[in-house]
Amino acid sequence: MKESNRPRVGIVMGSDSDLSTMEQAATALSEFGVSYRMTIASAHRAPDRLRSWIKEVETQGVQVIIAGAGGAAHLAGVVAAETVLPVIGVPLDSSPLSGWDSLLATVQMPGGVPVATVAVGKAGAKNAGILATRILALQDDTLAKRLVAYRLKMSEDIEKKAKELEQRIGFSGQSALKPPSKPVG
Ligand code: RP5
What we know:
Distance between the termini: 74 Å
Strand order of the largest sheet: 2-1-3-4-5
Helix content: 40-55%
Bound molecules: 5-O-phosphono-beta-D-ribofuranose
Number of strands: 5
């Protein structure tokens, strides 16, 4: 495999129904220019496939694995049991319990088998991509610079939105943010 084609992050999810959420992780990685490989490999429905995918991406040079699953979400934990690469777990809100089940299943790992668990759902998937980039940036100055620029842009965006809001309301200051007073009667 050509060096430029080597994936640096592996993304795995338990089902194709997780894709619309896990795409957020892929988008974040793409924005920072981080190459990845993405697949579906359930811990429960296809454990052999999961095991061989982990071996494959390890051989390809992947340095961080992001695993997202919903319900009885053992995916990230099983990945962490099969590799010594850092594993980021994304609990998905795909079940009738709205992600409480996957949050607890992903975060409550036994000592010795760490999974860095991010927020439930889309924000978690996005943060998983950013966190993976931060891990890679420890040994990659270009990525570190992109992360600094990203953080700066976030705060500039807030500044811009605050100014727009203050202008729309007509004046700036604390009172602009007060809720309207209750109607009488
Ligand atoms: C989990 O079960 C998957 O990660 C998914 O979030 C959930 C439902 O899967 P499907 O029944 O939609 O395939 O293993």
